[in-house]
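Input record (one chain):
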Amino acid sequence: MLGKILVTDSKARLKISDLKKHRWFTDEGKLPEDAPPVPAEGEERQSPANDNATNVEADANVEGGSSTDTSQLLADDPNSASKANMTEEEAQKWITRTQSEQKVKRVFQFKSRGVPANIVKSISESLGEMQCEMKIFEENNKIKACRMTPKGMIGVVLQVYTLEGDLQMVEVRRGKGDIMEYSSFYNDLVKNKIAHLIEEVVEPAE
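The corresponding structure, as predicted from the sequence alone:
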C-alpha cells in the first residue's frame, strides 16, 4: 500500500477511496456493515441530511490531503518531496524512524550519589567533550546546553535536585531541535558520557 501511495504520478497514486478499502483499514478487505458506501472515482459523496457542508468537506480530506492527491498527506514535512520518490523499502525505513522518534522521552530522570556541584561539573565536562555550548547556573545546579548538528541546533537542559543526604535527582530535559539528532546526542550522553553517574533510572510522572 505504501508503495502505491508514495509515487510522483498522481494518476498512478492510490486514491483515498481505494485506501479506505485496504485491509489495513477494514476487516481483511470487508467494509463494516454500518459503514457508508465508498463513492466510486468521480462520483460525488452523498452526505446525510443533517450533515452540513463543513462535515462533508472534512470527510473528503485527511490531514489536509484531498481525495485525489495523497501527496498532501506529507505536506507538513519539509522533506515531503523526497518522500514522494521513495521505494517501498525506503518508506518502511521512514516509518520505522518516525516510530523511533516517538520513543525519545522529553524528560529523563535518574538518581545519583554525590555533591550536586560535583555532579554538575562532571556533566558539564561531558557536554564540553561533545562540543556543546552551555550556560551553568550554579545557584540552582542547572545547565542549559546546545549543539549544532547537520540538521540545525539542538538543546538540552539538565538540573540536579537534592532528595536526601548525598542522594540527588538528575533531570535531563529535551529542548528544541531535530528529534533524531537529539536522540543520537541523548544516547551518547546517557549511555556513554554520564553513565557512571546513574545509580537508578526514575520514570517521570505523566
